[in-house]
Amino acid sequence: MMTPMSKLKLLVVDDDPSSLQMLQRTFYSDYEVFRASSAIEALTILAEHRDIAVAISDQNMPEMLGTELFNQMAVNYPNTIRILFTASPNTADIIRTVNSSQAFRYLAKPCNVSQLRDAVQQGMDMYILLTNRTQALESQLASAEARYRMIFESAVEGIFQATVDGRYIVANPMLAKIYGYDSADELKTSVTNLNQQLYVFPTRRQELMLILAERGSVTNFESEAMRRDGRVIWVSENIRAMHGNDGKLIGFEGTVQNITARKQAENESQLLQKL
To answer: Would the pTM of this model clear 0.90, i.e. be above it?
Structure first.
């Protein structure tokens, strides 16, 4: 992590020792400079210092072109700003090269020190902007995940995802409690066939699967279920089918409520009406 007093990191890549020396002299007082005489060496440095802000690379190098280096960097080190050195006199060539390597800027050789400093400073500014935005997004994502986890863990109804063949892959603590298990992990490990282990009447789950196949979702589907201790309870399920990108059914997700108390009250009410 950067501190207010730390220097931003600059990587310079060139197979010409005199060019490397010139870049070192130009920037050593402002940035922490790393030197590489080949693209392979540059990738090794990047692997050790993932927070390098800007990379300047020559285009024509024997082992790997600067564009090839930048293409790998775009995948593995997307926040590092890439500036390309090229001696090509063909403007169209330069534009194609810059676009293909996803470079931030290019500098034609030879260039003066002022141009060089300006390009690197712009790259550093862009790196700081990208880094700040990335950190803000990661913070927002972490907050959202924490809120979701709190809701998931403290929900008053069971939440689940299950495979087509009837195994839980996601379960919250309330779902485990409904079925009489000490934890969600214990529920997922113990229940490997919902049809046989939870439903008192297996045909009831078959009816549920038919409705889901026809409609894609079902609400307030009531069934008698078997708890771990052998006690029979009533549950109400809200479920929807999950499909992959190819449209193939991959599982189900939904919620479960224990409605045993309500069912008992309804039965008692019906009995009283008959009496």
So the answer is: no
Query: Beta partners for 161?
Result: 170, 253
Rg (C-alpha) for the chain, rounded Å, is: 31
Interior/surface letters 133-172, b for 16+ CB within 10 angstroms, e for the rest? eeeeeeeeeeeeeeeeeeeeeeeebbbbebeeebebeebb
Q: Measured over all CA atoms, what is the biggest interatomic distance in the chain, rounded to whole angstroms? A: 104
Please, which pLDDT band fits residue 222 given cuts at 50, 70 and 90? very high
Rounded to 5°, the CA angle 14-16-19 comes to 80
Nearest Cα to Cα of residue 79 among 43, 126, 32, 14: 126
- CB-CB contact of 9 with 1 (8 Å): no
Distance CA 71, CA 54 (A): 15
Please write the tens of the pLDDT for every residue from 174-185: 999 999 999 999
d(CA 61, CA 15): 6
- What tens digit of pLDDT does each residue of 55-66 get? 999 888 888 888
| Rounded Cα–Cα distance for residues 144 and 195 (Å) | 34
- The residue ranges of DSSP E strands in 79-177, in sequence order, are 81-86, 105-108, 158-162, 168-171
Distance CA 69, CA 52 (A): 15
Contact 205, 191 (CB under 8 A): no
Rounded distance between C-alpha atoms, residue 36 and residue 236, angstroms: 65
